[in-house]
Amino acid sequence: MSLSINSSILREYDIRGIVDQTLTIQDAFLVGWSFAKLIGDYYVNVGCDGRLSSPKLTEALISGLIEGGAKPRFIGRGPTPMLYFSTFSKENEAVAGIMVTGSHNPPTHNGFKFIYKGRPFFGDEIKNLKNISISYTGNFSKHSSYESVDFSELYIERLLEDCKVSSELKVAWDPGNGAAGEIVEKLVKKLSGTHIVVNEKIDGTFPAHHPDPTVKENLEQLISIVLEQKCDLGIAFDGDGDRIGVIDSKGRIIWGDQLLLLFAKEILSHTPNSVIIADVKASQKLFEGIKNYGGRPLMWKTGHSLIKTKMHEQNSPLAGEMSGHIFFADRYYGFDDAIYAALRLINIVSSSQQSLSIMIDSLPVVFNTPEIRIDCDDQKKFSVINEVKRLLDKQNKKYNDIDGIRYNCDEGWWLLRASNTQAVLVVRCEADSEHNLQLLCQDISTILSIYDLDVTALK
Questions:
Q1: Could you tell me which CATH class the domain 162-361 is placed in?
Q2: Is pTM beyond 0.90 here?
Q3: CATH number at 367-458
């Protein structure tokens, strides 16, 4: 009987599974072996996050790469953006990179993110790894001899190249015991101003809180520090450092689409008429704001690989997602780097006569929900989307189906899409008043209740 990679872990833009259940050491080995067979006899940089399962998965992945004929180089433990950077660095010899990370998923999960020839490796390319893995007939040999290269100092130096902090801001940082902790701890020592860093120790049990800055509960500690220490802003990261969360001096959460509008204003001031990309979860006010600032807004599918690919197609200097992925091709490499985004935000605040709070107060008033996640089995979530489409079609209701369903009406819109990384349906609603927001939430709640889903979060 032939062996192959478990199909259930092959997602649209990365590989993710539950360790020792859907994602095994054998899978990690076969991912490495199949990737090596695909790219040939070239260097591949490998990094890992701080999850407890990451060392053994990294070891198996590297063994597979070696047996498949590639030349892996281990760049160490750190954030995913450092792995991406290592493939762009002038010191680099690798054509590809693989990051062992579970991102913001629970501690029992893990997976792999890829970069190949400076571009995302995703979709059918990931699915093809399974087809390649079927031909493996070896004994899953363990290879412990491989090269290690430290890119951390080069990465920090590159981050600082675009840091133009000119005032004494007070900033609180919370890596959430995730993979960005050690880099942030070193970085802030090189910045002017006052910097308070908490939960910087990398710990795969995530003792302080789960590292997902899109969930309000995970930001409560940072909010308290910002308010108690009278900070100008607070910055949080997810488990692998490619998503950012921001708190202003009033303790308010600044969501991804609000951040993107601040970044768009700054970039469009020197690159007018540029295409600025945001995902389908973003506020309508963002797209209107980009246009008002002299840019060309483009709504696109959610997913870091999908966004990066679209940026390249459109020659876009900036893109972002509600989830906190921010992509800078303006002076940077076009990948999602939350630490870099934090420095660009600090640049904006430090060079302005206004505080971040005042900047946020000046944005258009909008009534919307954050991302709401509704638990839904992986085998069921896409069928729910299709059934809701058929329901709306019967009612002759207009919607955008570029990624899930974005239903539009005079009062606002609601979004329903299936997550490509978790067993959830993602919902977001936006309206022109608090009353209409409640009506939209009630509308999508009523629809989802048909499918026996827990819609408590929408109440």
A1: alpha beta
A2: yes
A3: 3.30.310.50
